[in-house]
Design goal:
Length: 145
Amino acid sequence: MNVRMRLGATAAALGALFAFAGAAPSNAVPQEADAATSTAVAAAGQCPYSGSHPQLEYDDGRKYSAAVKHAQCLFNVNNVKAGGKKWLVEDGYFGWNTRSAIWRIQYACKIDTDYIVGPNTWKCLHLDEKPDPVPEPTGIFPVKP
């Protein structure tokens, strides 16, 4: 599937989602809430997912996975919370940018930097639960504007 087809399919899916939901999602987080609660609210609201957390690894972006899309969204929430920007396109394809992002978050969490989203990486990504370990700012994370 080429990029143009992916973009068209993504736009169609988002249009249908917003039409069904009635409004675009809000990225706003209440200022008075503490940091952990704010991030939990953001992650739960922006990254809904009801599937399992399987092991994920680079596949040159050849096949779509809802779990990859969930990991991409969680990375973006972590990155923005740490002072960076929304860096990944949340398209569900584990390509080079997702691979790089996974390495960055693994490095920030001080876990094995193997580019594989396994149990430890899922724990690090999930700020809507108690993250363990908590990602710490480094020279490579967060990805700044």
